[in-house]
Amino acid sequence: MDFLMSGLAACGACLFTNPLEVVKTRMQLQGELRAPGTYQRHYRNVFHAFITIGKVDGPAALQKGLAPALLYQFLMNGIRLGTYGLAEAGGYLHTAEGALSRPRSAAAGALAGVMGAYLGSPIYMVKTHLQAQAASEIAVGHQYKHQMFPPQSWKAALVAAMVSGIAVVLAMTPFDVVSTRLYNQPTDARGKGLMYRGILDALLQTARTEGVFGMYKGIGASYFRLGPHTILSLFFWDQLRTLYNTYTK
After folding, report:
1. pLDDT in tens, 124-175
2. Helix axes 46-56 and 2-29, enclosed angle (nearest 10)
3. 178-192: string of b/e by CB count within 10 Å (b at 16+)?
């Protein structure tokens, strides 16, 4: 569960921070091995880079490399935080007296970090190649011509569905937990619930008593149910739309 929770949390954050990764990648490649003042600065600062990329490459370019970025975050952080969490749960970070051992904690953290970085490195390379891709007038660094999917590919629809599934499950699981408990609570003779007064009361009671993670109970099952459902829904929708456009022309 630690692997899944930490991986999904990192993916949720990645949806918002990936545009900054695109900007960072291009600014770091700008002027590579060239003396200051001998090259054209396409990106003067972070804000200028955002505007330039959005104008020239289009707003969607700010999410370039999102698919490998999500996979990288899920693997790296899932392995790193999950491994450390397992070590902590197994008691390996404490001495025989029960005190937290700093050397053991440091060693476990370092080992978990190395494992995550090693397994995630190939995916990070692909992410960097995709994020560096730009129109010729603002291109920096070597331009790899990778293409994740050919135009109108069903694979693109699958990846988009997987990404949206992560976002949906992170946003909706607390409300799903609450709705399940509201429907399942005992009632009095008039059918009024005996445990919760409504949605807000159920959210507050759950958060106060069980903590934030209590609001995400069953998130793994939710994703493995919602993920395939979202994937298949978007996949069939995309294919039906393609067929309609093909035969109505």
Report:
1. 999 999 999 999 999 999 999 877 666 666 666 666 666 777 778 888 899 9
2. 90
3. beebbeeeeeeeeee
